[in-house]
Amino acid sequence: MSFFCYHRATRSAFTPCIRRLYSTPGPAKKSNIQLIAELRKLTDAPLTKARLALQESNGDLEGAKKWLEAELVASGAAKAAKVEGRAANQGVVSLTVVDGGYGHGHQRDGGIRVGLVEVNCESDFVARTDQFSQLAAALSSVVARVPALSHSEDPSFEPLNVPELLQAQYGDGSMTVKSAIQNIIATIGENISIRRAAAISWAPQPDRAVRLGWYTHNSNFPFQGQIVGLSLLDMRAQSIGKLLEPTTEDSPLSDKAGQLSHALAQQVVGFNPVSITGSDEASLYEQGFMAGQGALVKDYLANWREENKLQSVDVAGFLRWKVSEPIPE
């Protein structure tokens, strides 16, 4: 910056006396173009929305992000209301296994924590997209973590109340499951809904090990399918936890239990039993076992128990869900 002091040299001319003042410049302020580019990179917002968000927040990046989140929720709710009555008979069943019993999962202590959800949309095309699959996977993850840990004697598949599930927290922020679904509706333009959800959250018990098996049919993404089958293989013996406890290499019994529980889940998907025991092939135990070379399921389990020197081996429960099938009362 320059300051000019003038003194009269003659009556017709002035001679400038120049003094310069120097100052250290502060940090360069980001241009509006740079802020828009950064905001779009963080949020994938359209150019016009990013510009408007920065205008509404006076150029504050964090404020602009919050404005966009609120705008997305409002837009999603409005678009969801428009498509709410449209039939949604396509979709997927999505599974999240946090802990699947001894030798599997995060804790690997014998507990079971799993979530299952059927998410519906209008078209098969949307059901096969990455965006819809990612939503379904995130929703089954929420379902797996909703129930409190159960110390009941037997593990069981507990249905969740869907309206309550819609109000559950989605992800790490303040968004709810309902808002997350509405945001995807705003992007895709189809009606999307949760039809049903179930979970197991079961604590391990002494001298007893339950191993979860699962199988997905007609699947485009891991842990998802048009049909999903689950089985609970119940094994009892003294100190069975140590027998199944993985070491540097998984124990043979843990491997075999995983293979058997998986085969039972395949059986559930393929033969669609209605009960565990009974007098005909509607019951799981009276069916020819797909993995048992013609032996009945009950006979195969009895032989497997003897081979592995266990006190008892049973199926504690199973579940089979198919997209858009009638739901029993």
Automatic annotation (TrEMBL):
Q: What GO molecular function annotation could you give as one example from this UniProt entry?
A: translation elongation factor activity
| Primary localization class, coarse | mitochondrion
* Superkingdom of origin organism: Eukaryota
Alphabetized HAMAP family for the sequence: EF_Ts
The cross-references to Pfam families, in alphabetical order and at most eight, read: EF_TS
> Where in this chain does the record put each Translation elongation factor EFTs/EF1B dimerisation domain?
116-277
InterPro entries given for it?
A: EF-Ts_dimer_sf, Transl_elong_EFTs/EF1B, Transl_elong_EFTs/EF1B_dimer, UBA-like_sf
Q: Which GO BP annotation is one of this protein's?
A: mitochondrial translational elongation
The Swiss-Prot or TrEMBL record describes its family as follows: Belongs to the EF-Ts family.
Q: Where in the cell is it found?
A: Mitochondrion
- Report the source organism: Armillaria gallica (Bulbous honey fungus)
Q: Could you identify this protein by its name?
A: Elongation factor Ts, mitochondrial
Which key words are in the record?
A: Elongation factor, Mitochondrion, Protein biosynthesis, Transit peptide
What does the record give as the function of this protein? Associates with the EF-Tu.GDP complex and induces the exchange of GDP to GTP. It remains bound to the aminoacyl-tRNA.EF-Tu.GTP complex up to the GTP hydrolysis stage on the ribosome.
Kindly list any coiled-coil regions of this protein.
none
GO cellular component terms, alphabetically, are:
mitochondrion
Q: Which gene encodes it?
A: TSF1
Determine if Transit peptide is one of this entry's keywords: yes
